[in-house]
Amino acid sequence: MSVRVQPITRDEHLTFVTARPCASHTQVPSWGEVKPDWRPESLGWFDESGRLIGTGLALLRPVPGPKVPGLRRYLAYLPEGPLIDWRSPGLAGLLEPMLEYLRGRGAFTVRMGPPVVVRRWDAGTVKAAIADPAARRLGDVPATSYDPGAGQVADALRGMGWRQTEPAGEGGFAAGQPRYVFQVPFAGRSLDDIRGGLNQQWRRNIGKAEKAGVKVERGGYEDLPVFHALYTETAERDRFLSRPLPYFQRMWNALTAEHPDRMRLYLAHHDSEVLAAAIMLTVGEHVWYSYGASTGRRREVQASSAVQWRMMTDAHGLGAAVYDLRGITDTLEESSHLLGLLRFKVGTGGEAVEYLGEWDFPLNRLLHKALNLYLARR
């Protein structure tokens, strides 16, 4: 099959994405507006009959350094994409036209994140692994389920010259999109089933919040500074690098302009004070708990638990098939400060999910090597 890759309009891109039951929020056209340091392009895959069979949001970032006319070079990044038939026996015929197009745009390296699930571990398996002192990493624990087709995709990529990137952050947290996430399946389950699947601590905390009179309300653009103040406090407490307020304001403007429910903000109030807040993203049947924030004050009223349950309730009402709590660590070492986050997410009764990870194709090996050296020194 002969396939061509070329730019498409935002409307063409969005129509294709929204026709699918599941696609990442990093692959909708509006996501490019959230990243001002990158130049976004909507790409389309067309078959011989001219039918659109795939899309990709490509983000182009220039090489650091002085601008030289005619010599600008870019890192091309397709986070959690492109949206193509990854199980196609002709996978090379889908990826090679993309590489040629991006080479013509000045890309020296192409990075992508195939939305392909490799393994899953149910909550009981993860909980037992955390308690096992011999278990060091989630990847070493026998999975509840494994998709051999994912291994075939990985083999095909290696055969084409793609290289799997290694996570640059602590505990398996990559600089790009997370390879390991935690998800709660919603499809075919009632809200009572979902609440019953939460562990005892989660159910107790939700009950405490309800008894204490915590009220969760949806916020708007004007409430983002309140969220950000809590988020900054959370970042200092949990030792992660926070994003500035304008980032979330751009996100709100871009995503809600595309769809009014693409991004939601939730605020938990107790005695007229906002104690916790969170951001929820939705694309099709996939809902993400994207950012959470809370104060250290009055933690006994469990405001964060109230926010989570409200978001899960609303996600179920929207017809979500998956409630995604995003990245988790793959380390099971008791000394890791990220292990507490994993324990928290395991309490939902969901499952740990491993994706294929991110992959690079060096179009210019010298610049690709220079990029890796630059990233290693950051």
Can you put this structure into words, describing what you see?
Keywords: Acyltransferase, Cell shape, Cell wall biogenesis/degradation, Peptidoglycan synthesis, Transferase. Belongs to the FemABX family. It holds the Pfam family FemAB. The chain is α+β, with helices and mostly antiparallel strands and 378 residues long. The protein has two domains: 4-113 and 358-377, Gcn5-related N-acetyltransferase (GNAT) (Aminopeptidase, 3-Layer(aba) Sandwich); 119-146 and 180-355, Aminopeptidase. The chain has helices at 10-18, 31-34, 91-104, 123-131, 148-160, 191-197, 200-212, 224-238, 245-258, 303-317, 339-346, 365-377, and strands at residues 4-7, 39-46, 52-62, 74-78, 107-112, 117-122, 145-146, 163-164, 180-185, 215-219, 263-270, 273-283, 286-294, 322-327, 351-355, 359-362. A nine-stranded mixed β-sheet has the order 7-6-15-9-14-13-12-11-10, with helices on both faces. A seven-stranded mixed β-sheet has the order 1-2-3-4-5-16-8. Strand 12 (273-283) and strand 13 form a beta hairpin. The radius of gyration is 21 Å and the shape is globular. Residues 168-174 have low confidence and may be disordered.
Helix content: 25-40%
Q: The CATH topology of the largest domain is what?
A: Aminopeptidase
**Beta-strand percent range:** 25-35%
Number of strands: 16
Query: Would you state the CATH class of the largest domain?
Result: Alpha Beta
Number of domains: 2
The rounded distance between the terminal residues' Cα atoms is 43 Å
